[in-house]
Write a structure and sequence with these properties.
about 300 residues, alpha/beta, seven-stranded mixed sheet, binds zinc ion
């Protein structure tokens, strides 16, 4: 199954002409998850034809403005659509209180059902038949969560094997598919021979943080690691002061944890092009790119 990620914003605190506040849209077979919603994200969505009705879930990393200022506008728009399904929202400790304050800050005529949940401990918080999501607490100046999106492993029929034995019967193939051994023409057919497991894809999201053990947990064995990289390593003192990562630290995290591809985002406005950030990470991890607004990655 093919799914895709669209980067809707790739700046840090101050947006630039080229980089909007943070937001990433994951489209998994028609199921839409918006990770963070900085200022102007709903308009960024328009540029790439993502409709508000495509969002099934919003997942917030933390309540700094560059990750959340776009929520009121987006929710106002969604509230004026014909939506009947509840909108699921997840975020760190304090999320419910922040929503309450937000809705009291202006006239907001909410017409949709919001299911707001705070994630208070690390681990699994969503699981369905296609994928699951885990949260891991990062170390930033306010409660902040990083995430892992993991596609469930799928069992696939080994066509060569079943053809060899002439098994065409639908229900029998169905049993194999669901992991059961079968008997065919008096012969035992073992599921481990007749099927193979295809590992699900894994995506890690490291949002605002200092370099810490949580970064390694999020990055472990992922196909794609999306990481903030606010500064190059020459500004490590600033990264420490404001509790952010350098590009080199993001690269280090990728190189230590069997990551396939690293995508850097959340760049400081001081970087007028992405070459310094890219070179800094590539000193330690070669398969790196720097995200730009509207970058789309198919997985
Ligand atoms: Zn930020
Ligand atoms: Zn932050």
């Amino acid at each position: 199954m093919i799914f895709d990620l669209t980067f809707l914003g790739t700046s840090c605190m101050v947006p630039t002409k080229d980089r909007n506040h943070s937001g990433i849209f994951l489209n998994y077979n028609g199921y839409g998850i918006l990770f963070d919603c900085g200022e102007n994200i709903q308009r960024q969505m328009k540029f790439v034809n993502i409709k508000p009705s495509q969002i099934d879930m919003i997942i917030i990393s933390h309540w700094h403005g560059d990750h959340t200022l776009g929520l009121p506008g987006l929710l106002q728009t969604i509230s004026n659509t014909q939506r009947t399904q509840p909108l699921k929202i997840f975020g760190p400790k304090g999320t419910k209180k922040y929503f309450e304050h937000m809705f009291n800050a202006f006239v907001f005529d909410n017409k949709i059902e919001l299911e707001i949940k705070e994630i208070i401990k690390d681990g699994l918080f969503i699981k369905n038949s296609d994928f699951y999501l885990e949260a891991i607490e990062l170390e930033h100046s306010v409660p902040t969560l990083g995430y892992r999106f993991i596609q469930n492993d799928k069992r696939k029929i080994n066509k060569t094997y079943v053809t060899k034995y002439g098994i065409q019967d639908g229900p029998l193939l169905g049993k194999l598919q669901s992991g059961e051994n079968i008997e065919f023409n008096g012969k035992k057919i073992k599921v481990k021979d007749a099927t193979k497991i295809i590992s699900g894809k894994k995506i890690g999201f490291i949002w605002d943080t200092v370099y810490c053990e949580a970064c390694n947990k999020i990055a472990q064995d992922v196909d794609i690691l999306i990481s903030e990289a606010t500064y190059t390593h020459s500004l490590k003192h600033k990264a420490d002061e404001f509790k952010h990562l350098t590009a080199q630290e993001a690269g280090q995290t990728a190189s230590l944890n069997n990551v396939d591809k690293l995508i850097l985002t959340h760049l400081s406005q001081r970087y007028k092009n992405d070459s310094e950030i890219l070179e800094d990470a590539q000193k330690v991890f070669d398969n790196t790119i720097v995200a730009y607004d509207f970058l789309k990655i198919k997985i």
